[in-house]
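During the second half of the funding period, the structural biology subgroup turned its attention to how the target accommodates small molecules. The most pressing case was magnesium ion, which had performed well in the primary screen but for which no bound structure existed. We therefore specified the complex as follows and requested a full 3D prediction, including the ligand pose.
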Amino acid sequence: MSGDGPMSGDGGAAVIEARGLTKHYGQVIAMDDCDFDLRPGEILAVIGDNGAGKSTLIKSLTGAVVPDSGTMRLDGEVVQFRSPLDARRAGIETVYQELGVAPALDITQNLFLGREQRRPGLLGTVFRKLDKPAMRREAAQQMVDLGIRVQSIRQQVETLSGGQRQAVAVARVAAWATRVVVMDEPTAALGVRETNQVLDLILRVRENGLPVVLISHNMPNVFQVADRIHIHRLGRRVALVQPRTTSMEEVVAVMTGARPPDTLAPLDPTS
Ligand SMILES: Nc1ncnc2c1ncn2[C@@H]1O[C@H](COP(=O)(O)OP(=O)(O)OP(=O)(O)O)[C@@H](O)[C@H]1O
Ligand SMILES: [Mg+2]
């Protein structure tokens, strides 16, 4: 399936390039010889019907699923992530579809989960204290920067609304990613205002030079922000298109199998 025409990458240096990814769960083929390409600084939307295998693909790219076969390169180097921590160490931050927050912890603790800042202390590494005031200040600033309104930074995440919770998850990835930001349905549970905030945030992440992988069922949102659209069907990428040259109707027709992918406009390699 690593092929020609609209299916292949465009030859530019990819941040992530995966070829032939496959994942079986017993009789279920969740990923079937799947390719994936992410270019520097782009917002890449990944779309597909329920069960098409989008989350499985994203989890393979971010270490949460180990594919049965296939290869992945990060900035040209072959990588094999065995856990989400491997991917995080490589600079890839992810908001998973199954919400990526710890409900019993407060906002600050969620933002710093796993990377709590420590005050330099006399007793060295073992007894160093968590620098809570500094973390709270930074967490509050991060929320303000992202335009996310909450009553208190000490509020437990389980007491937030669904939209606010999602915003905390997004704030965390935006704060820590150094190479790639991945979001699996970040706006699925959000109202109009919160959705627009998350979309603004995604655009801001791109302005800061980081590429974003955005899994979404919301076609208007996808067409609003994506530079390219990866269309996923039956466990693999069936087309890679630009919203500039492909209509929403065409994209949906290919996604549902109503139209063969090779009838779409090929990628314009000059843009
Ligand atoms: N851990 C698992 N065990 C068994 N089957 C799985 C597992 N994870 C995914 N699958 C199956 O693999 C297929 C792809 O699932 P996946 O969650 O990747 O789809 P998706 O495109 O993300 O769907 P949605 O749009 O509903 O989020 C489905 O048939 C699903 O049931
Ligand atoms: Mg999914």
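Two results from this model are relevant to the next phase. The chain has two domains: 1-91+178-263, 100-176. The two ends are 24 Å apart (CA to CA).
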